[in-house]
Amino acid sequence: MKVREIRVPKRNLGNTNIEVSCLGLGTVKFGRNQSVKYPENFDLPNDKKISELVKSAEELGFNLLDTAPAYGSSEKRIGDLFQQQKISRHNWVISTKVGEEFENGKSKFDFSATNTELSIKRSLNRLQTDYLDIVLIHSNGFDEKVFDETDCLPTLQRLKKEGLIRAIGVSTKTPRGAIRAAELTDIIMVTLNPEMQADLSAIERAYELNRGVLIKKVFNSGHADLKEKNLQYALETPGVGSVIIGTLNLDHLQNNANVASQL
Ligand SMILES: NC(=O)c1ccc[n+]([C@@H]2O[C@H](COP(=O)([O-])OP(=O)(O)OC[C@H]3O[C@@H](n4cnc5c(N)ncnc54)[C@H](OP(=O)(O)O)[C@@H]3O)[C@@H](O)[C@H]2O)c1
User: Fold this and answer.
1) pLDDT digits (tens, 9 = 90+) for 7-23
2) Which atom of ligand 1 is nearest to the CA of 245?
3) Is the CB of residue 27 less than 8 Å from the CB of residue 65?
């Protein structure tokens, strides 16, 4: 099958004014291979491999990259790649996160205003850009405490007003937190596959409110058997804007794009 025959369609991300490919490229594996939940251990890809993946993704119609400070060197590697390969920043929607960092093999969380602002400046610096399309709060498991007891959300709202961020949201860990996130922000990033449907109510709420919906773990981090079925299910769920899939394998990238292009 020729790569150019496959085009991943685009969808609006709620009312954000951001149009994204209905598949996004997840980049955990670009920068982190410790304390991850994938079925097999792996080496971090070299620069050539990352370049091939991003270029192939672009040819297949992807325009969305999902990264995070918690994904080790992922943000820096994306920034360096765009700079070195002269990839146009404006052709891509970059989603990153705040709140979690991963250093020396351990995660730590800080949702304070000071750290949120520092984290955004660091992401801009690592990604070598002057704006971030999407910033998601990287939940520690206590979604609602983060909303009610920290200054993370108001800080992001301020940075959005200042023009550093186009849209804000939350990568949630609880069904109730996901519903609150749909009510409070522009975008929710939630888990969905046929075996994990706890966030369906939040997706419905987001759809009602015209918020953006990003899906993570559609393959249960690689453990799901029926990958095509899972992807079809997520893409056909009303309200879903884009399904973020992590892969280091060009054939997998193309297979996933092929499924999306036929819906
Ligand atoms: N914010 C959060 O809390 C959070 C948490 C998890 C994930 N995420 C985001 O969501 C993305 C996806 O989540 P995820 O990486 O945990 O899980 P996932 O997308 O469900 O699964 C990724 C795994 O599936 C494999 N895979 C991909 N396409 C395949 C195919 N066609 N056939 C067979 N295997 C395939 C990949 O291995 P190969 O490399 O071998 O293809 C990889 O190990 C992440 O990269 C990240 O951007 C966010």
Assistant:
1) 999 999 999 999 999 99
2) 19
3) yes
Which residues are known to be catalytic?
Answer: 71
Looking at residue 2, what is its pLDDT? 53
For the chain, first and last CA: distance in Å?
A: 17
The residue length of the chain stands at 263
Contacts of the segment 197-205: beta carbons below 8 A, 24+ positions apart: 199/172, 199/175, 200/237, 201/175, 202/172, 202/175, 202/178, 203/237, 203/238, 203/239, 203/240, 204/238, 204/239, 205/179
- Whether 258 lines ligand 1, by a CB cut-off of 6 Å, is no
User: Among residues 227, 234, 233, which one has the least CA distance to residue 253?
Assistant: 227
Q: In terms of residue numbers, what domain contains 106? A: 3-261
Total number of domains constituting the chain: 1
Q: How far apart are CA 53 and CA 41, in angstroms?
A: 19
Q: Read off the tokens for 32.
A: 């982190």
Tell me the CATH number at 55. 3.20.20.100
